[in-house]
Amino acid sequence: MMVDNSTTFNQNLFSFLDASPTPFHAVQSLVAELGKQGFKPLSEQAAWGTLAAGRYYIIRNGSSLIAFTLPEACNLAEQGVRLLGAHTDSPCLKVKPRPENVSQQLWQLGVEVYGGALLNPWFDRDLSMAGRVSYLDQKGQLQHVLINFQKPLAVIPSLAIHLDREANQNRSINPQQHLPPIIMHTEPGEQPDFRALLEQQIRTEHADHPIGTVMDYEIALYDTQPAGFTGLNNDFISAARLDNLLSCYTGLQALLTASNRPAMLVCNDHEEVGSMSASGAQGNFLQSVLQRLTQTPEQYARMIANSWLISADNAHAIHPNYADRHDAAHGPLLNRGPVIKTNANQRYATNSETAAMFRHLCQQADVPVQDFVVRTDMACGSTIGPLTAGQIGIRTIDIGVPTFAMHSIRELAGSQDPYYLYSALNYFFN
């Protein structure tokens, strides 16, 4: 039964990943599913008053989302809220504001590296572009629209080994010089215009939008290879943006089952660059929403004291070719369940109380659980967990699905682990 459930779950996860090449598209995908399940949109600009029992969601910047359920006769101060936190962004290459460059009669795009990306895997891939475009319509009104070229239209070719004999021993990448992708052959004297290309794409995707002039954009490149199974027995799943859209999707599916108690899914943008933004975990998005759900500071403080947050962000599985990069006693395995992430220096928010809660929860849900602690002589990454715990004052644990090749253009996880995580979160919300 577990295999059948996880297979279907993963196939739906693949569809979500493929439809979500940017944080904007990820939120759009989440909203589409929430709408089907009866969740109603709330605007931060509008007055909420006292919300009736129901299902709601709020979007900020088009790239961050909070969705929650309020059961009948719930008392937030007494019950608190069960929260699942994740992030919508992934390391990638973003197009610069003035990206046009022609060299050797080839149109290349100037790009910036977003987040801590592994750069080598970006070479020799079939790349496309997607993102948000802001434009003036024919009436002079500012509008915003999402676009996705979908087809392969860019590539970053490697330099042939004949011209770089040391490539397999010592290959360094200069992001400014070596990463601009090629998108088109040009004729002598031709001057490409990236904004004109975006206008053309908007007309193609959104024929009903009377576009005038493109004003600005946030466009990212992505790998066109779809998500899928790999391994002789479909032991693994391979995809872009597993970190951390896997947690967003799994949290969404668990939230849809919540009925007995107040539950909330928080999907922040900008985690990969430190979370310091209006839509990041260091912004006030979550705090603002939580405060508006109560009437007095006393009720708010009691609600926070009775709440729990699971911060779900992928964990480093022990790699068979680099096992020495792990503490041998804390090397999570693929397909062996979610990982509790602990760090004595508070790079993760886990403490003994929250770890014990999650272990007990997994025990009740019949889900295996593992531990990760970084080697004592290595630096430790972080998540939205400590940021949210410090800002809100909520009990928090950091967990995640074990993963290989984190921050690569294509990551790998065990095919059983997403459903294990879903089972644990489903139990948590209910």
TrEMBL record:
InterPro entries associated with the record: Peptidase_M18, Peptidase_M18_dom2
Top-level lineage group: Bacteria
UniProt-recorded Gene Ontology molecular function terms: aminopeptidase activity; metallopeptidase activity; zinc ion binding
Gene Ontology, cellular component aspect: cytoplasm
Cofactor: Zn(2+)
Keywords: Aminopeptidase, Hydrolase, Metal-binding, Metalloprotease, Protease, Zinc
One of the GO BP terms on file: proteolysis
E.C. number(s) listed in UniProt: 3.4.11.-
Cross-referenced CDD domains: M18_DAP (cd05658)
PANTHER family reported for this sequence: ASPARTYL AMINOPEPTIDASE
Family, per entry: Belongs to the peptidase M18 family.
Descriptive protein name: M18 family aminopeptidase
Native source organism of the sequence: Methylophaga frappieri (strain ATCC BAA-2434 / DSM 25690 / JAM7)
